Request: fold
Amino acid sequence: MLDPAHPIARLLEEDRRYKFEAYAFVFEALHYAQDVLEMGAESPTEPNAEQAEESETPAGPERHVTGRELCDAIRRYAIEQYGYMAKTVLNSWGIHGTGDFGEIVFNLIRVGQMRKTPSDTRVDFDDIYDFDVAFQQQFKIAPS
Reply:
């Protein structure tokens, strides 16, 4: 169970559009992008609001994945994890387009769970691909 004091628990109360699984999936997809797909360039990031107040974690270079790259990684990871059900699963969590990934990422930035570079914007995630096309897979059942 998620600690009620955790920033994501507060976020889920403030913004009910997305389920907890959507936030967890975006984190997993980010790690998939960086570790498996080797996406991201070393880039300085801005401290988010909570980090700026705490000054515990200084802003510094880290591997940065762009909005477009993250959307591509999310698509690939969703298909890998859920196959032909990927779009249905994402929709059940409140995700219906790539703009929703941007909303989730910027919600996480706002509550101090992700960071951004000075050039990152929420609109970087808009209209990257059409969900119906991106998650339509050619699945064939082959006789054994």
